[in-house]
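Service request form, structural biology core

Requester: graduate student, group of Dr. S.
Request type: structure prediction, single chain
Budget code: on file
Notes: please return the result as structure tokens.

Sequence provided:
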Amino acid sequence: MQAFDTTPAAAPATPTLPMYPATLAEALDIAGAMPAKDVAALLTADSAAQLAALAAATSDIDVAMRYQGRKYAEVIGYQSAVIGAAQVLEFPRYIGVIGNQWSVNGGPFAGGPFPGGLSTINYQPSTNIWDWDPATSTAIVPEAVKRACVYQAASRLAARRDARLDARHDGVVNQGGGGLQEAYDGEIRVLCRVADQIMQRYRLRSGEMV
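Core staff response, request fulfilled:
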């Protein structure tokens, strides 16, 4: 595997927009464990470009599809201080069902008030939250989502998909040149192939958002 020097020439810029890896250092650590060919564009960019791509990739993930469940803070609103007063991003998510039974499985909550005037809520943090850190009793962004964000950021910097995505957005269904023809059909996928494959596990498949 080809090695890249990921040490920035100057101190990395501070993130000014939300992104799924909490810091640039975390994102580069994740990228360092990925195939070099997939993330070379990210690893070789300067820190400002890396942060901009990671923030844009985070936005891409949030609008790419409808996800199962709801934002964690929307459901567990009275405890949202653990992830900020307001949850801007789609993850972490609560995927349990709000109902008429209160059950706690190792969680920090011992009563209401609950959102929407409900008196009770089903709460099983080990299975109902993407993701849950039992050591700190905190909802966290899944590692898989962070990996998808890094792949998408690298794809944005490589810019190999831009021409096709722009053409499809403008309504082009086929194009060609030099004897080659491309035909486009189906859904326009915002995410690159690897990031999209990772995020499919969280996609809302049918029915309503719980």
